[in-house]
Amino acid sequence: MRSPADNASFASLFAPPHSLTRREASVTLLSLLGRVYCTRENGLDRRMAEEKLPTRAQDFSEWYNQLVLKAQLADYAPVRGCMIVRPYGWALWENMQQALDRRFKATGHQNVAFPLLIPRSFIDKEKHHVEGFSPELAVVTIGGGEKLAEPLVIRPTSETIIGHMWSKWIQSYRDLPVLMNQWNSVVRWELRTKLFLRTLEFYWQEGHTAHATRGEAEIETRQMLDIYADFAVNDAAIPVIPGKKSDAEKFAGADVTYSIEGMMGDGKALQSGTSHFLGQNFAQAFEVKYLDQGGQLQHCWTTSWGLSTRVIGAIIMVHGDDQGLVLPPKLAPYQVVIVPIYKTDEEKSSVIEAARKLKSELVATNVRVTLDGREGPSPGWKFNDWEMRGVPVRVELGPKDVAKSAAVLARRDRPGREGKISSPLRGMPEAIAQLLVEIQQAMHDKALAFRKANTHHAKSYDELKMAVENGFAYSYWCGSADCEAKIKEETRATMRCIPIDQSLGEENAKVDGDGTCVYCGQPAPERAIFARAY
RNA sequence: CGGGGCGUAGCGCAGCCUGGUAGCGCGCCUGCCUUGGGCGCAGGAGGUCCCGAGUUCAAAUCUCGGCGCCCCGACCA
Q1: pLDDT at residue A405 is higher than 50
Q2: Does the pLDDT value for residue A311 go beyond 80?
Q3: Residue A50: which residues within 8 A CB-CB, separation 6 or more?
Q4: Partners of A529 in the beta sheet?
Q5: What's the CATH number for A84-116+156-319?
Q6: Which nucleotides of chain B does any protein CB come within 7 A of?
Q7: Who has the most CB within 10 Å: A108, A273, A320, A492?
């Protein structure tokens, strides 16, 4: 955890007269807050300080940073703003990839691979695209020791190079639609970075489609948004609000951008997937044209959509608690961990035998399971370790359990004794499978309840200001960029989206007719979510 | 790019103000002992004190200049 002295920037806000040193100032501040921090003078506290995370209430940002490192999801790369995804984090991403890829394939998309390097001139071809992306491009100017005739940019996204190729491949209405996706990484030179949420390079999928008609492309855009929402809700257990972005927030080059927005554990919003209706903007810039049935040359209508490793950050921040990660069973690298407990060699052999048998039964029923056979750490240590790493179900198996052909099951989403039950070994794979389903549902319901509790239907500007302090404000907005900009300037909250479902999923919610803008009081047809965002 | 903080063993830090033998905890290795909620004891290995210049008999410590990272703002998936 952070020592008081590390909080100097915070403490400096309250800096007393210069007669006090910085540390004294910090201590003064902390005692004002009435909070007891562990001291560096006490050896025991010191050890605990290193093993325990800060609580989310103490410092949400630091809780997140330390958890990502301690759970071994990722680490900082030697290059500023870049991350290394470690095996545990990548296993989570692989499960996410499979869940999404399955849905993409089921809706007719095919995977492809386009190059990392894109001619600089391609980016320049679409007016809004170049304006949006120029500041954050990484550019290669030298290759093989020679200065390049034309600089190459490292892809920030692939609309341009795909448009270029489509112009060659697409000739006829019979070639349409083209439904492609690629899993890759992209680079955007962000100024301020945070593991998973915003790094210079990040991993994602980018889908790109071309259609004969506007209507078809619009349907595709919405279909992919629905797929993202379905994935978020059913696999990541994250309730999200699908909606439309304002002009200020939309993708550079899109006519319409949709997103799914989730509420994190600190009440801030995270855009967790986007789907763009690109109109004919890129088709015109790259001359993606086809002959229709009447022999007329037409520009295609295109879409693009992406979901990134940022959602790993969402999973951490939505479900995590003060003990660490809480991973949704459908995506968790390990759904079950078996912790064997024994003293003597005799106990060890019978316990390990039972544990191995259980493990193979679980494997046979397609449960992702690991047996923690490490010799060094004590069982108690392992409990805490796997809790921190978010494994949904822990099986505690010791001599007492073996004696009665049972084991203790502990639910990660219900910490402490409350989440523990003794369960017979016979039929345990089925019981665990059922438990995983329950946990998945409970996690979603908990997150939804949290979002509801922190979403306020703010009718006045004062109410909005209050609401965005720790959650979402849901308010009528006239649609003007001026009001949007003023709200952002004055509250640091941005317009997240205009929810497609204006009832926010409340079955019996009364959807009011037209209202008046929360900022200017002019007539407003729709309500929008305002929140501070990552 | 502005404001702040930090850089000393794998990790977390103390030492710096007031220059003189480089330390503590965790982790790691060996042995014993323990194991049902972060065991214990003993021994051991491990250092370019971020880099460079300067001051000095002597620099982790003082001065100047770089570099890097983290946090807070402006920009963003």
Answers
A1: yes
A2: yes
A3: A1
A4: A474, A497
A5: 3.30.930.10
A6: 1, 3-6, 11-14, 24-26, 28-29, 34-39, 68-77
A7: A273
